[in-house]
Amino acid sequence: MKKALALVLLVFLFAVQVMNSYGIQRFPKPEFESGYVQPETLMPDPRAEVLAIMDIAVLLVSLSVVSWLVLKKRSRNGVFWMSLFSLAYFGFYREGCVCAIGSIQNVTLALFDTSYIIPLSALIFFVTPLVYTLFFGRTFCAGVCPFGAMQDLVAFRPQKLGSKLNAVLGVIPYLYLGLAVLYAATGTDFIICRYDPFVGIWRLNASFGMFVFAGILLILGIFIARPYCRFLCPYGVLLNWSSRFSRRHLTITPSDCIQCRLCENSCPYDAIDIPVTVKNPEDKRTMARKLIFIIILIPVLIFAGGWTGSRLYESLAGVNAKVQLAKQIVSPPKDSNQPETFEIQAFKSSGKQQSLAFAEASAMLGKFYLGGWLLGGFMGLVFGGLIAGLMITKHHTDYIPNKGTCFSCARCIDYCPVKMP
Q: What range does the domain containing 366 cover?
């Protein structure tokens, strides 16, 4: 019933967006005689500042309310309706901007380019969810992130994937994060924003390909809950790390677990660690061998990954504008009738020498060579951690949420018969 009402609300919000878009675009730009200059449309700065302040205030209040609902009130219904509010405000009203996920790129660019001044709102949207996660777990994912709310509405028949498949697919966000940082640090592109699956829906301006991508994710989300959040979201990597050190975190039961097993299949994200008892404990020699193997393996994987990444630096740099310009200068079109690209025309009109373009491209290739080493080494470390996690068994006696992968959605709470005293 809740999801049906939520879908009706979603359709209504989408219809409002369509009507607003139609109302803006249905009247064509007036035609004037030659000599008329169309005035430039300006956005008043004070209003923009008010919007930024309002966004920050709504973010802080929403995070506080959801954290209270999860940890104190232990209310799944409250989290659900808060997620709908976040979808309506941060999604349809603010059209996905400012976005905590995309703010990764703003922060990265600010760190590597001194001429770039990061907007204060982007910095706050980046830091604040991480701070809340450090104290209260991933309550941002539970009911504040519009991306998660969008996918939660379609999770009708979620299926379990198994711990090993979850672990393997969970490597993809690390790669996405590494690529996003690399391209932002070199000033190449903001790929998180470029390939954002849902912002184009909220703004009604996505390309056909992105609409298809978003549709695939939503259809897939019927059977695999939150596919973007679990297997693509780069900001989720940072939230995962932060949540592992959270001081307070969602618990399935408010007191001692009675081993009723009612919550065992309650999580659509496979984020509940089931009890693991010690039947045949490993001897100290076997444990020592595993530890030595992991200690040797991880540096080897880091070096192998770094070396592989350094071999791919030219491919990674191929999308950079400076590198592309140098390639176009070196290899002009063979057909003389083919018009010059806009980049070549802009370069010729600037009066710059070709040697300067080659020097800039060479410097950019050097950055990507170093970045390839770092990205590959990072992925080697990720694979090493994955292997170590599969080899090392953690023993516990209760059903507990995995602090890293749990979205703090509070679904499992309703399955527990133990009530608060």
A: 284-330+341-391
